[in-house]
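TL;DR need structure tokens for one chain.
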Amino acid sequence: MAALRAAKKELRKAIKQKLASVSTTSIHSQSNNAINTLLSMPEYQSARRIAVYLSMPNGEIATSAIVGDALHQGKQIFVPHTHNLATRAPGQPKAVMDMLSLDSEEDYRSLAPNNWGIPTLSEDSITSRKNCLGGKGTNPVGTGEDKIGLDLVIMPGMAFDTRLGRLGHGKGFYDYFLQRYQQQASTMRTEMPFLVGLALEEQLLAEDQFVPTDESDWRLDALVTGDGTIIRAHRS
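>> reply
TL;DR here they are.
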């Protein structure tokens, strides 16, 4: 476990150094390429309930155009909200992520950036926002009338490989969220969502290199890169 953590830390450091030299112009161009491809994917076009990360100003594919397109098409959008747990069960992390509703373009424009420049839901709005797992806020306990679940999750990352391995930023937010989702999927009578990552070309490892992972790390179903390429999982 210590060796795995060290390997992940070293890879994050290497990718961070590489991303530092990527220009704003390149990020804008790669974002356009990736988003045009994503919007053409049948999994996106058929999805009614989508979770999407809200992007930092640099270092990753920008997602504002995805938010705008999805809202324009009448899709239900959910975005990350991370928070500390007041009480923790054994094995739970200190902080977790819920996916909460983003209701309109006006709602999106009203979000203030956090310390990383990421548009962030205001604390006073949390309890009124729908949780993708039912209910509202960070207490996903819904009624039988609630629409629950997700069709598609659009995921960020620090590094990706051609086998659809993903290296996050080190907090485990997405992996633990998906673990929780899987545990509730049978009771929700829903399937796991389609998982697609977005990567700048600089974040994709060479074909002979792989993201260090263990059984707690979720693999993607597809990856869209900054040149507009889609890498899909091979299904047996």
